[in-house]
Every structure is written in structure tokens, then in C-alpha cells.
Specification:
Shape: globular
Distance between the termini: 53 Å
Helix content: 10-25%
Number of strands: 19
Radius of gyration: 20 Å
Order of helices and strands: EHHEEEHEEEEEEEEHEHEHEEEEEH
Length: 398
């Protein structure tokens, strides 16, 4: 009987994008983006990736679901807003690459089984050497260990998205969320693993995305749905309740007597005492699966690592979220006849050279918002969407 272990972890952008979207003019955007760019310190990301890889190694996970596995790119001599604007290509930090490199250094062989590019935007940034362009690309990812067989992956973005206009510019930022999935075979068992990151601020979009996600998942086999759902115990639960109407929560089943909070540490990750107060990251499951063990990782103070920043040694958490690792007993299932979702070839973040466009309207849900949406742990699009719900209105939805 197969006993797959699955780890899910929002690995954190590591910068506070809400500062950028407080801008009221293009000059503000450049100034704030320059400060954000200065905070993207490659050695710090490398140290965090080492810590994350250490936790992955300790769990011996068969499948690893990552959220906010972002790429930061730059381009000298900004051409932002030009008619022939070229997307920034010079990689400053690639969080996914840092993690896989750290895993390889430990002799662990994991490969990317599925990947989806969600939000991908670029803004000008003022630096001492002049104005450059900085591009941030967000991704949801599934890693699998080399001995795990993988069937063709599915990767897509949700229809529910927001479109914002940069101040004093015709440039738009399309804020997307998405998911990726892969069906894996292990010790004679077969199940689909999913990595997703739902909207952090507005319940309207979060619930709409959850409905889209459920409609796209196969029901002819067991499914482990991993992600940062931005909904759950300790905060608004409408989306969590919707998901758990058809899925069970491994942590709630196995550890109902403990809080299991996963969100969120300070944005700069330097807080000494844990600030986790909500359980919004989870491994949900359905079909022929039974959880036999579940726990958090990266939530104890001992998980913090030392990094050098501006000549100072500081300790930081591996991420602003804790990870969740669950082991299941996998049994045979009876197919229901539901067809496989349509496969869409995932775009690699290192190859994607243009942002997505268009803003389909979401359906369903209520206008409930998540308290503290401008704080840490809200994710890439969440930091931006905070403006739409009243944090700061320098743009409008068309």
C-alpha cells in the first residue's frame, strides 16, 4: 500500500510590495521600487532556501507544493512605457532555483512536475546608477522526487482576476492567481497533487477562484489539494468551508486539538517570537486517502537562519508562512467517470517574456474582506489588491 508524503509551503516573496502600491505618481513608483529592489538581497534568499531545503529533506516528501516561488528580474536603462518595451530578463533572484539548487547540494533529486505563472509585472525603479526596470513573476509549483512517476501536468490561471493601471501611465498590471497539478504514481498507487494560491484580500475573488478550481479537478482518482487558501481557522472561513464541503483537511482530522497556525511572520522575517495566528495553509484530500500523520515545519524559532544584511547579522524565518507536511495511506478508488481536465502547457517563468492581459469578471461570493490584508503573508497579488478594497486607490478596475 502506498504511503505518499506531501509538503505544502508558501515560501514568501521576502519584500513588502504594499509599499510600492502606495504610490500616487510614477515618480513615487520609481522611488519606492528602488527601495524594494535594495531589499532583494540574494544571499538572504539563498540562506532561506537552504533552510527550506533542509525541512524538505527532513520530511522526505514525495511531492512538494510551493507558492510564491517568484523570480525577480532587472533591466538596466529602463524602457518602461516605451512602445517597444522589452521585458526585463536579468535574473536577480529565482526562489525556485535557489531551493532546487539547495536540494541538489544535499544529494536530493527533485524535479519540477508542474508550474504555473500567475502575476507577472514590471515597474521602473530609481537606483544610484539610474532608473532600471524591475520585474516580479509569481509562480505556483509542484516538485516531485526522482523516483516518483509523473503523468502530464495541468497548469492554468483563474478567470477571476483584477486589472490595475499604474499612475501616470498607460501600463496595466493584471493580477492573477492559478494552480498547477500532476498525477503521480507511487508504489502502485495513483493520485493527483495540486498546488494553488487563492486571493488574499477579497472574498469575492477568493471564493470565485475556489469554485473554478473545484470544477477543474479530476474526481476519478484521489486528490491532495495543497495551498495557501487565505481562508481558514483564525480568520474568514467562507472559502475554506466551501473547499472542505468536498475535501477533508488532514490537519483538522489528525490534529484537531492543536491550532496549527501557519500565517504570518513579519514581512522582513526578523521577528523573534512567532506571529502565526491563522491556519490558512493546508493539505486537503479526497478519494481513497487517509491521513496517518501531519505536522507543521518552519514554525519553531530554531528554524530561523542567520543572514548578513548591510553589514549586520540578523536572524530570519525561512518564510512568513509555516509549511504543512502530511502523510497518507493510499488505497484503490472507483472511477466516477469524470473526465480529466484540459491540459494546458505551463509557461516557464524563465521563458515568459510578456504579461497576461485581459480581466475576466469573477462570479459569486460576497464582498467580505480579510482583515490585515496589507500586512505580511498576503502574497504578491494580495499586496496589490489591497488598494482595490480601500487601502489606497491609485488605480481602478475597468
Amino acid at each position: 500500500m502506498a504511503s505518499p508524503t506531501v509538503l505544502t509551503w508558501n515560501v514568501s516573496l521576502g519584500v513588502d510590495l504594499t509599499r510600492l502600491f502606495r504610490a500616487e505618481s510614477l515618480a513615487d513608483v520609481e522611488r519606492i521600487a528602488g527601495r524594494l529592489l535594495a531589499d532583494v538581497d540574494p544571499p538572504a534568499y539563498e540562506a532561506r532556501a537552504e533552510a527550506i531545503a533542509g525541512e524538505i529533506a527532513a520530511t522526505d516528501a514525495d511531492v512538494v507544493a510551493l507558492q510564491e516561488a517568484a523570480v525577480f528580474r532587472t533591466q538596466e536603462s529602463s524602457d518602461y512605457g516605451a512602445e517597444s518595451e522589452t521585458p526585463a530578463k536579468a535574473v536577480l533572484v529565482d526562489i525556485l532555483s535557489e531551493i532546487t539548487t539547495a536540494l541538489s547540494a544535499r544529494g536530493l533529486d527533485y524535479s519540477v512536475a508542474a508550474e504555473t505563472v500567475t502575476t507577472d509585472f514590471e515597474v521602473p525603479a530609481a537606483t544610484d546608477g539610474g532608473t532600471v526596470d524591475v520585474r516580479i513573476t509569481d509562480r505556483d509549483v509542484l516538485l516531485v522526487r526522482s523516483d516518483v512517476a509523473v503523468e502530464p501536468a495541468v497548469a492554468d490561471t483563474f478567470d477571476a482576476a483584477l486589472e490595475l493601471t499604474v499612475p501616470e501611465s498607460d501600463e496595466k498590471v493584471v493580477l492573477r492567481r492559478g494552480f498547477c497539478s500532476a498525477t503521480v504514481r507511487l508504489d502502485g498507487g495513483r493520485f493527483t497533487a495540486v498546488s494553488t494560491h487563492l486571493e488574499s484580500v477579497t472574498q469575492l475573488f477568493r471564493l470565485s477562484q475556489a469554485r473554478e478550481l473545484l470544477a477543474r479537478l479530476p474526481s476519478d482518482r484521489p486528490v491532495v489539494l495543497c495551498g495557501d487558501f487565505n481562508s481558514g481557522p483564525g480568520g474568514p472561513t467562507q472559502t475554506y468551508d466551501h473547499l472542505t464541503a468536498s475535501f477533508d483537511d488532514a490537519y483538522a482530522v489528525r490534529r484537531s486539538d492543536t491550532d496549527g497556525n501557519t500565517c504570518c511572520q513579519a514581512t522582513d522575517l526578523r521577528n523573534e517570537e512567532s506571529q502565526l495566528t491563522r491556519r490558512i495553509d493546508a493539505a486537503l484530500y479526497r478519494g481513497g486517502l487517509r491521513p496517518t500523520a501531519v505536522r507543521r515545519v518552519g514554525h519553531e524559532p530554531t528554524a530561523r537562519v542567520e543572514v548578513q544584511h548591510d553589514g549586520e547579522t540578523v536572524s530570519v524565518w525561512p518564510s512568513d508562512h509555516a509549511g504543512v507536511v502530511a502523510t497518507f495511506e493510499l488505497t484503490a478508488t472507483t472511477p466516477t467517470g469524470t473526465p480529466e481536465p484540459t491540459t494546458k502547457t505551463p509557461a516557464s517563468a524563465t521563458e515568459s517574456e510578456s504579461t497576461v492581459t485581459g480581466t475576466p469578471s469573477p462570479t459569486g461570493g460576497s464582498p467580505e474582506t480579510t482583515a490585515g490584508a496589507s500586512g505580511p503573508g498576503m502574497g504578491l497579488a494580495g499586496a496589490i489588491v489591497g488598494l482595490v478594497v480601500g487601502v489606497l486607490s491609485w488605480s481602478r478596475r475597468e
